Amino acid sequence: MKRRPTKNLIPADEGEWLRRARAGEDEAFSQLVEAYQAPVFNLCYRMLGDAELAEDAAQETFLRAYRSLAGFDMRRPFRTWLLSIAAHHAIDQIRRRRVPILPLEEVLPESSLRDPSPTPEAALVQRQKEQDVQRMLRHLAAADRAAIVLRYWYDLSYEDMAGVLQTSVSGVKSRLHRARKQLATLSPGRARLAAEGIQRVDASAV
Q: At which of 37, 69, 97 does a domain end?
């Protein structure tokens, strides 16, 4: 499973918004919400598989961030801190509600899944990839699912993932290794197709 080059997604005015928000200016925090509402919602949606649950989780993420903003370490990337809140809340929801993973065609952008005019053979192979990824991701534990999503949908480095998941880099690598191993053992003959299916994820919407 290959990763795409990381994009710079930090808003130019983020530092100023943070300083003003920490000083109690609600409008500045609203700018932060506007800048990060899409990636936060997308993470919750990919983890929870339900738009309504994801919307509630995103709102809770920003509420928790607002309440904890005074204690936020300005030396830490705000995006990593915010995604950490979202990821842990989503993990808690999965464990509490046993939320299933959503159908793969709802997770991946349509353009990244299907050729507009595939041959019957290509359509069959692509459909097999979709089914394999969907079925195999469903078996992952919540924390391992989060690791896969953050690595291949959000293109985070091991260091950033460690910050989000509040673990060490070795802990991140261990979770990814465990998740990949589990995906492979679920269907050894189809693991390569599943990996190719995840590899096709378009991170541009993050």
A: 97
